[in-house]
């Protein structure tokens, strides 16, 4: 039996667009670039030969156009995994639910999603300016725990090794971190030989959850020291950002291909930062546009 989605579950605006994104089904390309900053959407689209639609609502700005003949939709997600839950569910609905009948379509339409973001580097080989692809993401955000099938798509031995290494119990592991792989095919295609293939912690905040202490002390003052030293099956943790785990996790559950690549704008080990990155992230955007 086909699944039917009531108007309270899948909210469709009067003009036929999806609730938060305000995007209509016919505007969605199969290749999608996600960025955090709404200002980065125009930067990506500045390389398009043509634009077929442009729409903006809250932090979600969307442009669909073509780059060297490839039809691409670029969407901003704002900051955090809560927004990834909204963006991924609405993009998947645009692709795989019939907005007239409110029923799931027969054939899965698989999307290819690449997030282009910024991150904090954690290793000596991830200085400011490095492009890090998240081959694996460790989600500190808990989002995936609300979906059935979480354990079937996560790397459970890696999760256990990480928790043992951190020595966390009680509040420090609520919610328990989940470990999820990006699409290996996308990582191979996008990372090439000029990007680091890393393990990314997607944190539920920019300060405490990433071990930044301002006026309020951290629950675990040794968090980042332990994270930097963690090693499992040859993997080391390379960077912090805030969305890659939710993107990789939901894409796996929905049947899409996804990955994240971020430019390092702060190295936490070396204690350096670059606030002028908005001029240099275009190099990363062009590489992704060529390879997507
Ligand atoms: C924090 O400053 C934001 O920057 C990173 C983090 O994931 C978080 O969203 O990514 P974006 O530059 O894509 O927003
Ligand atoms: N984005 C993050 O989430 N953390 C950083 O340190 C830099 C960018």
Polypeptide structure, described:
By secondary structure, this protein is α/β, with parallel strands linked by helices. It has a single domain, classed as Rossmann fold. Helices cover 26% and strands 29% of the residues. The strands form two sheets. Strands 7-12-10-8-13 form a five-stranded mixed β-barrel, surrounded by four helices. Strands 5-6 form a two-stranded antiparallel ribbon. The longest helix has 16 residues. The chain is globular, with a radius of gyration of 19 Å. The two termini are 35 Å apart. 42% of the residues are buried. Bound molecules: 1-O-phosphono-alpha-D-ribofuranose (R1P) and uracil. Uracil binds next to strand 7, strand 12 and strand 13. Uracil (URA) binds next to strand 7, strand 12 and strand 13.
């Amino acid at each position: 039996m086909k699944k039917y989605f009531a108007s309270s579950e899948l909210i469709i605006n009067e003009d036929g667009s999806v609730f938060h994104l305000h995007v209509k089904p016919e505007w969605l390309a199969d290749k999608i670039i996600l960025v955090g900053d709404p200002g980065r959407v125009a930067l990506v689209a500045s390389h398009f030969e043509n634009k077929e639609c442009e729409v903006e609502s809250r932090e979600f700005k969307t442009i669909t156009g073509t780059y060297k003949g490839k039809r691409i939709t670029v969407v901003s997600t704002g900051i955090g995994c809560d927004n990834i839950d909204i963006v991924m569910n609405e993009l998947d609905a645009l692709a795989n639910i019939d907005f007239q009948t409110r029923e799931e379509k027969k054939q899965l339409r698989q999307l290819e999603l690449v997030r282009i973001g910024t991150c904090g580097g954690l290793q000596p080989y991830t200085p400011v300016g490095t492009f890090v692809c998240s081959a694996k993401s460790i989600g500190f955000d808990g989002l995936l725990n609300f979906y059935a099938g979480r354990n079937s798509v996560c790397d459970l031995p890696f999760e256990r090794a990480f928790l043992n290494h951190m020595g966390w119990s009680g509040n420090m592991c609520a919610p328990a971190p989940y470990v999820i792989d990006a699409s290996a095919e996308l990582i191979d295609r996008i990372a090439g030989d000029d990007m680091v293939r890393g393990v990314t912690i997607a944190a539920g905040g920019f300060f405490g959850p990433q071990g930044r202490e301002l006026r309020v002390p951290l629950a675990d003052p040794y968090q980042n020291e332990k994270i930097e030293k963690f090693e499992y099956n040859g993997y080391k943790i390379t960077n912090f950002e805030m969305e890659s785990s939710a993107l990789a996790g939901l894409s796996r559950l929905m049947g899409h291909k996804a990955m994240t690549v971020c430019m390092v704008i702060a190295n936490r080990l070396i204690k350096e930062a670059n606030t002028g990155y908005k001029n240099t992230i275009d190099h990363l955007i062009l590489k992704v546009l060529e390879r997507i």
